[in-house]
Design brief:
CATH class: Mainly Beta
CATH topology: Neuraminidase
Order of helices and strands: HEEEEEEEEEEEEEEEEEEEEEEEE
Number of helices: 1
Distance between the termini: 19 Å
Number of strands: 24
CATH architecture: 6 Propeller
Number of domains: 1
Strand order of the largest sheet: 1-2-3-4
Strand content: 35-45%
Mean pLDDT: 85
Largest sheet: 4 strands, antiparallel
Length: about 300
């Protein structure tokens, strides 16, 4: 999912939600040629480890999608290292299966043969190489979530929600109630999701054809993760973690990440959050306490 710039996190804290624009240029090819970058590698502090856009977990390895390509921190290792050679700006990001990752974003400036927006890109080798799947030059997914063959992507270029039932080869367009900055799919049904927008939380039970606001006494905003039917998490712009056991109807505070969030996911019973300082933390107790999992 898309990173939250510090200004974005501050806006969340104030309750006024802001979708910050991203820079860069992108280039995958519609004929499936790999999206690669031949320029020399930077170290983590020079690239996007300070601008984390998304997280994923495969086995014990943490994957970190950034403004400067994909990074990983293997199990037992906190120092992140680059995956492959590509330094493209990966915006939306999701681990679909063991070796299949999907993403979106912009090409590295050296990739002059590609348009500014990559559409949907895919890796079949754990993030080492990438190729375009669809919407090359037409979409920049700031939010990208998957459940099996079902994919939801919020296209920041046109403010539209795109829905695919075939792994991203074809799409249907939906009109969201407001700009989306987080989306969580119901683990029991890929047709159901909750999205966090500029107007609060909305629920859809029909793959986005209709969306209704969740009836809350106060408008909530933040990054979402939904690992189990009775465990829906939200982290707000101030880093406070809340839990809902009934799909967003009622919430209770459980802890704090100790900073401003940039990306948030769940993997099994563990929670992972990227902070705007470039670090990634993990919680193994439902968000009550957090420890550093990866650093630039």
């Amino acid at each position: 999912m898309r990173a939250l710039r510090p200004a974005f996190a501050a806006a969340l804290a104030a309750g006024a939600l802001l979708l910050a624009a991203c820079g860069g240029t992108d280039n995958p090819t519609s004929d499936g040629e790999p999206v690669q970058d031949a320029s020399p590698a930077h170290d983590a502090t020079e690239t996007g480890m300070q601008h984390i856009h998304g997280l994923g977990v495969r086995g014990g390895t943490l994957y970190i999608a950034t403004h400067g390509g994909l990074w990983m921190a293997p199990a037992g290792q906190t120092q992140a290292e680059r995956v492959g050679e590509s330094q493209q700006d990966i915006m939306g990001f999701s681990v679909v299966s063991r070796d299949r990752f999907i993403g979106s974003g912009h090409p590295h400036p050296s990739q002059t043969d590609l348009p500014p927006n990559l559409g949907l890109i895919e890796s079949r080798d754990g993030g080492r190489t990438w190729k375009n799947i669809s919407l090359l030059g037409e979409a920049d997914f700031h939010v990208l979530e998957s459940s099996g063959a079902r994919i939801y992507g919020f296209d920041g270029t046109q403010g539209r929600l795109m829905v695919s039932a075939d792994g991203g080869r074809s799409w249907q367009q939906r009109t969201p109630p407001a700009g989306i900055f987080s989306l969580a799919i119901d683990p029991a049904s890929p047709e159901t999701f909750i999205t966090s927008t500029e107007r609060g939380l909305f629920l859809s039970t029909n793959a986005g054809k209709t969306m209704r606001p969740l009836e809350l006494r106060e408008q909530r905003a933040g990054l979402l993760a939904w690992p189990a039917s009775d465990r829906l998490y939200l982290v707000d712009g101030q880093g406070e973690v809340q839990l809902s056991a009934d799909g967003g109807g009622r919430w209770q505070p459980v802890g704090s990440i100790g900073g401003e969030p940039a990306a948030f996911i769940a993997a099994g019973r563990d929670l992972y959050v990227a902070l705007t300082d470039g670090s990634v933390k993990r919680s193994t107790d439902g968000g009550r306490s957090w420890a550093v999992r990866a650093t630039p």
